[in-house]
């Protein structure tokens, strides 16, 4: 059963999805449902091996194209809606034991192009108001399948974090006539203290206001709102800086680095969002090689994050681990 | 002073990346997509890249 329930206290929707309790949990590699089906082996979710990247509807979705009738009726303050939406899985490679960081930049470039296409296609559904592309990587952030993959949630509303960010950008634009995120990137580039990597189209930095020790934001230098606004050169530059950051992350503790990767784009509800600015945020949960940054009382209960490190120090640490990327000439 | 050195290092690293960008000529391979329906009604889309277009794909012109 699944449905959307409204939280009148925070003014937010949440989803119940009881069927997700039964989803596959950390299976051995031989029984990975995201690997291509091998001849004579058990049938996985992916019946064909010949692809670069594959996207499909999640078998255990929180939001559905054809949702069932909610299990409970609305009751005054307690509003309920069908859990309409789309949840997709995007498999980055048929190779089970790899990761996005381990992919050549050419494969990451293909992923950027697929992301762009999925953003475009999902946005055509009338009920879709916001498309959220993300990756949860590593057991430390709760992944249930190790095969390299990301997800896309097509929500029937603009989710609360994005709503707040959009409102702040609008407020800044109305007050100054400028884009808040352009101003942030401008300040970060000017000081250089928290810059981790840069190319002609993107800057990667540990923001002044980082909540996680190794938080990184990758922001387009040109003012644009979504992946669909990127030129072909910018798509390649995005792949390149993603490769640099992901590879640097794996060098921090000399191990595959867990993170949440979150693409922040304009909503798909037809509104005017020229005041907004596309960027990617990484939230890695590690604060040392052995210690996790937990969302405890202050963070989860009050919304005030406590960062045990200085963004300037962590940016320098990451910057020293960034290496140039070489593209295949073939 | 330390910050100046850091900024200089960064500039050097960026310059190297710019060199790579300007010297490597790249042309995007066409993207092809093929959609199938799974037995439970879900869709699955296979993306491949390259000049060899599948007969039933929907190529992307970028």
Biggest sheet overview of chain A? 9 strands, antiparallel
Beta fraction of chain B: 15-25%
Major sheet attributes of chain B: 2 strands, antiparallel
The total beta strand count of chain B reads 2
Order of helices and strands of chain A: EEEEEHEEHHEEEHEEHH
* Oligomer type: heterodimer
Q: How many helices of chain B in DSSP terms? A: 1
Mean pLDDT of chain A: 94
Discrete helix count of chain A: 6
Structural class of chain B: alpha+beta
Shape summary of chain A: globular
Summarize the structure.
Chain A is of the alpha+beta class and 330 residues long. Chain A is 25% helix and 19% strand. Chain A contains 6 helices and 12 strands.
Characterization of the model:
The complex is a heterodimer of chains A (330) and B (62). With 330 residues, chain A is of the alpha+beta class. Chain A has 6 helices and 12 strands. In chain A, strands 3-5-7-6-11-12-10-9-8 form a 9-stranded antiparallel β-sheet, sandwiched between helices. A 3-stranded antiparallel β-sheet of chain A has the order 2-1-4, with no helix packed on it. In chain A, strand 1 and strand 2 (12-17) form a beta hairpin. The termini of chain A are far apart. Chain B is an alpha+beta fold. Helix content of chain B is 35%, strand content 23%. Chain B has one helix at residues 2-23, and strands at residues 31-37, 43-49. Chain B has a two-stranded antiparallel ribbon with strand order 1-2. In chain B, strand 1 (31-37) and strand 2 form a beta hairpin. The radius of gyration of chain B is 22 Å and the shape is rod-shaped. The interface between A and B is medium-sized, with 37 and 30 residues. Strand 3 of chain A pairs antiparallel with strand 2 of chain B.
Can you lay out the helices and strands and say which pair or pack?
The complex is a heterodimer of chains A (330) and B (62).
Chain A: E1 2-7, E2 12-17, E3 53-57, E4 80-81, E5 86-91, H1 105-122, E6 130-137, E7 149-155, H2 160-176, H3 180-191, E8 195-198, E9 202-205, E10 216-220, H4 232-252, E11 259-264, E12 279-283, H5 297-302, H6 311-319
Helix pairs in contact in A: 1-4
Chain B: H1 2-23, E1 31-37, E2 43-49
Antiparallel strand pairs in B: 1-2
